């Protein structure tokens, strides 16, 4: 069991930017013990998603990355 995965369970849920395609809210789904955490758009007509990642923070960082931010 990885220390990072154990600590990730106790992280606060990270803030997610709106979907870069439709502007709707985003969410996180999944578990550390399965394929991983996925960040996704809550709009059922939008298929935007990133991941999986081993932690909610990692998935949020992937989702929140925008080229306009210089990242």
What's the shape? globular
Tell me the total number of β-strands.
Answer: 3
Overall pLDDT level: 82
Please mark out the parts with pLDDT under 50 across 5 or more consecutive residues, or reply none: none
Descriptive notes:
By secondary structure, this protein is of the alpha+beta class. 21% of the residues lie in helices and 20% in strands. The chain has two helices and three strands, in the order αβββα. The chain has a three-stranded antiparallel β-sheet with strand order 1-2-3, with helices on one face. A hairpin with a 7-residue loop joins strand 2 and strand 3. The protein is globular, with a radius of gyration of 12 Å. It starts with a helix and ends in a 7-residue tail after the last helix.
